[in-house]
User: What shape does this take?
Amino acid sequence: MELLDGKKISNDIKDEIAAEVAAMKQRGERAPHLAAVLVGNDGASLTYVGAKVRSCERVGFDSTLVKYDTDVTEAELLAKIDELNNDNAIDGFIVQLPLPKHIDEQKVIMAIDPSKDVDGFHPTNFGKMALDMETFLPATPFGVMELLERYNIETSGKHCVVIGRSHIVGRPMSILMGRKGNPGDATVTLTHSRTQNLEAICKQADIVISALGVPNFVKAEMVKEGAVVVDVGIHRIADDSEKGYYITGDVDFEAVSKKASYITPVPGGVGAMTIAMLLKNTLIAGQNRK
Ligand code: NAD
Assistant: This one.
């Protein structure tokens, strides 16, 4: 078994981006600028946004954090998005999800200028992705593709089972794996909460990509000997440690890693890649805007 080391690969990507930014600055160009909008005090969201802002510093990007209390109105948020859309100093921005219940997430995503939508969630970008056109790919599936590519994992003609059909992970993941190209060209089965015989389907997979959000769901009995296993899940499980929790994924790592040919750890797998790919999208956005 070999680890698909997202931490290492994401650091390589950040180094590549930092070198690119240094060259841009040397040419007298300004650095790419990412803005992040955060609503409320959800612990996981605060952690993710904090990590995104710190990563901007690491690669030499400019960054802006816009924070709102949970009671911000939808109109206020939409006005801010309009402002960011029209701000020439901002190359790309994200609105950290989930948003409070009184705000329509779809309306918010639709309001983002697709040319600044570095999360790749806008229907224009999602549609372009599905049609094999160049666009911003959603950061998490983009990170999985990059990890498979950098480890030279053969995907062509392989059976890939994706667990979960969310708009930000499972669905785009299934599209990307089925697209022409490398990685890609896989035969994809997209499974979800209504899928029957998931265990048997999963066992046929050469590549399993788990994004359902249930800790330790994927057991050794569900995985074929030699399969590639990608664990997108991230869970905080309360414990007695100083932090008060530990992080685990959707996959029973200990048992599944004994059968897998390659497997992503959690933490240090897909999660680390997501931020690197957001930075990559922001770099592209900055270059496109020149
Ligand atoms: P979601 O809740 O939006 O979607 C979960 C999907 O799993 C749904 O489509 C549902 O049909 C399916 N599902 C639920 N129970 C199932 C079951 N028993 N069998 C088969 N399918 C089932 O979740 P999401 O936003 O896609 O996130 C999934 C996981 O990935 C979460 O743990 C989340 O924290 C994590 N995540 C990680 C990253 C990252 O950077 N690594 C990014 C986004 C999400």
About this structure: The chain is about 40% helix and 15% strand. Residues 17 and 59 are 6 Å apart (CA to CA). Residues 140, 163-166, 168-170, 191-193, 195, 198, 211-214, 232-235, 270-271, 274 surround nicotinamide-adenine-dinucleotide (CB under 6 Å).
